[in-house]
């Protein structure tokens, strides 16, 4: 382990696997984990030996189950904005790193979990993977980039449907929607991911870096980076609202929320 919340594996030639490790919360992201992940991604980006970066979740149940809701219970507006901005720093590193970044989604990828996955260049998933943006059920909105990136994968109407409804999406539906590239049996996922990573590591690193840069420059997402702060500000402004207080309380108390109408 490189720190308490990350497990780092190195495979030749130049493949780094970063496992999110918070088993007690199904790998939910808190501020400390995000800071550690940001630092590790900066290191991988600068390491000339690293050719491909893979993000996955430790254990068999979850990739990343979302942001840590218990940490959000008493955040102020400014603290909510800062938390969202930290998430954006991590997702921008994954998206703009001059190396391929792969998400190996091995279970729950909800909220921030889906947002981390769609910041990678593409997603490979196990049959047990479950995606979704359930934030509206907590009186919040996605805060780590889904309002920018999700439509790039599945189109604007479908992105609106998933964000507005908060419903979960199975691996097979995610494949049909174009959210993931491939779905594999759980026991085959990491071997297939490594197979894909090895094929990329065998190519010209400068050529891949330039291709990724051009693809990002001409994608819709690259032109929308000015909206990142707007998402963070909107995410934060909901903190302390009646619906946000009720949504978070209901989640932590394991009951259905009763929103004001």
How would you describe the overall organization of this protein?
There is one protein chain. The chain has helices spanning 31-46, 69-72, 77-96, 112-119, 146-154, 156-165, 171-177, 189-201, 205-217, 228-237, 242-252, and strands at residues 6-11, 15-20, 52-57, 62-64, 101-105, 108-110, 122-126, 130-132, 169-170, 182-184. The mean pLDDT is 93. Strands 1-2-3-5-7-10 form a six-stranded mixed β-sheet, sandwiched between helices. Strands 4-6-8-9 form a four-stranded mixed β-sheet. It starts with 5 loop residues before the first strand and ends in a 9-residue tail after the last helix. The radius of gyration is 17 Å and the shape is globular. Helix 1 runs parallel beside helix 3 (77-96), helix 3 (77-96) runs parallel beside helix 4 and helix 3 runs antiparallel to helix 10. Helix 1 (31-46) links the parallel strand 2 and strand 3. The protein has 261 residues and is of the alpha/beta class. The chain has a domain at 6-187: 2-enoyl-CoA Hydratase, Chain A, domain 1.
Notable features of this structure?
261 residues; alpha/beta; 2-enoyl-CoA Hydratase, Chain A, domain 1; 4-stranded mixed β-sheet
Report helical residue fraction.
40-55%
User: Helix segment count?
Assistant: 11
Which H/E pattern describes the elements?
Answer: EEHEEHHEEHEEHHEHEHHHH
CATH topology of the domain at 6-187: 2-enoyl-CoA Hydratase, Chain A, domain 1
| Main sheet properties | 6 strands, mixed
Structural class: alpha/beta
